[in-house]
Every structure is written in C-alpha cells, then in structure tokens.
Amino acid sequence: MLQRIQTLHLLVVSALSGVMFFLPLMWFANEGDQVYMTALKLLVADVAIGSTPIYLPILIGAATLLPLVTLFLFKRRMLQIRLCAVEAVLLVGILAMEAMLYFGPQNSLDAGALQPASFAPVAALLFLWLAARAIFRDELLVRSLDRIR
What we know:
The structure is a single chain. The protein has 4 helices and 5 strands. It is elongated, with a radius of gyration of 19 Å. By secondary structure, it is of the alpha+beta class. It has helices at 5-22, 55-71, 77-103, 120-148, and strands at 26-30, 33-37, 41-44, 47-51, 111-114. The protein is 61% helix and 15% strand.
C-alpha cells in the first residue's frame, strides 16, 4: 500500500485540502480594515466578525477525508478510480464556492486578493489526476497478468 506512488499522490491531495482549513483563503479591504476569510470565519485583526457559508467547510472536510478513505481501498482499484472522480468534483466545487465568495455580492468591499491557500484545489486536482492515472495503470497491469494465467 505505502510503496505505491498513488498513495503519495493521495496523501498530498489530502494535505493540500486540509491546509485550506488553517490558512486564510482570501482577504478584502473594507473601510481601512483588512478582512481575512478562512474556511470557517471572517477575521478582522484576528477577531472573528462572521462566518463563511456552511457549505465551504463541509466541502473542504469531505475533500480532505475522501483521499484518506481511498487509500485503504487498494484492493478495489476501480472503486478507487471512481472515488478519485468524486474527489475531483469536490475540488471543483470548492473552486466554484471560492469564486462565488470572491466575486459574489460583497462588492461593497474596496479591494481584495486571493491568498496562496485558495489555489490549493488546483494543485490537488493535478495530484489527483496523477493518482488516478497510476491506479488505472495498476489495474491494466493486473488484468494483463490475469490474461496470462
């Protein structure tokens, strides 16, 4: 299990998804204050002033746990590939939610910028594609060996 490269790729996907809980995703300037948005709350000078929609932490939590679950299904490679597809949908959902929060109705804010943690789903999608490709190659190898017997 640990000797397979897709295990490392799935661990990186889980780590990249998990880091979004702890680092700021974006910041906005509002009347001289800098408002930072994390996955759970809005912060002004390290004081919580509000919360983000509940869907964002749920998506991030699911995107963090699903690769870990996928790791332990190493004997069922086709299910692993399907779960990688589900994970890709979750990561695209996180990107869509971030876009809605950044470009959405809070246009009363003066300026804003995305933080590096908001690009973690893009990097996670790359590693997820690498993991799915390696899982598929393993499946082809096992099928070719079954054919020889």
